[in-house]
Inverse folding.
């Protein structure tokens, strides 16, 4: 089944404790992206990647890191999480190097930082 | 830069009512336009899209027409069902085509 898989789905952590949210897609897509969703703010893009070893900042990259060493994986790293990073996070992928095609989303990772 | 404005929700309708969710945009160039839907507890999924002026996207009884003269992409459905209850997002491609510009989302509630 074609899918984007995120882990963990739910996580409660404490300020400053490094964490990684994994994202993996099995559709051989070039483009991958991370978003956060907050009430009243819609979706805001954190980082995106057009292909292996090619990443760029989205609208809200502060406090996050990403890497794209393999085509299928695009982990989101929070080196020192803070309470304002409490949010619902989505990973998405798309065929091609841009977004004019369909974006396929994971089911989301709900992160709470205390 | 490009931007999207969609009507605030929640929008509450009775089953079989006619639905319109407004979406207007500002853009340079010729962006592609999208509607995505998010059902409770799930990720977003593409509902429909249009890539050029006067194109009509349609899916699952929903329609939207790319109107360049009014810079709009309103979502419509003739007869809604309880199962249509979800959050609907309007979006367009950025100039670079590497990002989507998202509206804030409109929550739709359909009552039996």
């Amino acid at each position: 089944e074609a899918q984007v898989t995120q882990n963990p789905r739910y996580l409660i952590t404490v300020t400053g404790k490094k964490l990684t949210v994994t994202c993996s897609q099995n559709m051989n897509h070039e483009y991958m992206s991370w978003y956060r969703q907050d009430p009243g703010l819609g979706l805001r893009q954190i980082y995106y990647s057009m292909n292996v070893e090619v990443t760029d900042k989205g609208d809200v990259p502060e406090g996050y890191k990403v890497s794209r060493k393999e085509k299928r994986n695009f982990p989101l790293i929070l080196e020192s999480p803070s309470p304002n990073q409490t949010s619902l996070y989505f990973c998405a992928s798309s065929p091609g190097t841009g977004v004019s095609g369909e974006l396929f989303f994971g089911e989301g990772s709900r992160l709470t930082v205390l | 830069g490009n931007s999207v404005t969609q009507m605030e929700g929640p929008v509450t309708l009775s089953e079989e009512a006619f639905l319109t969710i407004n979406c207007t945009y500002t853009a340079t160039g010729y962006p592609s336009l999208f509607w995505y839907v998010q059902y409770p507890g799930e990720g977003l999924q593409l509902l429909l899209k249009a890539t050029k002026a006067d194109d009509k996207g349609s899916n699952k009884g929903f329609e939207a027409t790319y109107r360049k003269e009014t810079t709009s992409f309103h979502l419509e459905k003739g007869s809604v069902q309880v199962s249509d209850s979800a959050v609907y997002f309007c979006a367009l491609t950025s100039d670079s085509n590497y990002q989507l510009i998202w509206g804030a989302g409109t929550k739709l509630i359909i009552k039996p």
Q: What stands out?
A: The interface with chain A takes residues 32, 36, 41-46, 49, 51, 89, 93-94, 96-100, 102-105 of chain B (CB under 8 Å). The mean pLDDT of chain B is 93. Chain B has no helices and twelve strands. Residues 16 and 80 of chain B are 5 Å apart (CA to CA).
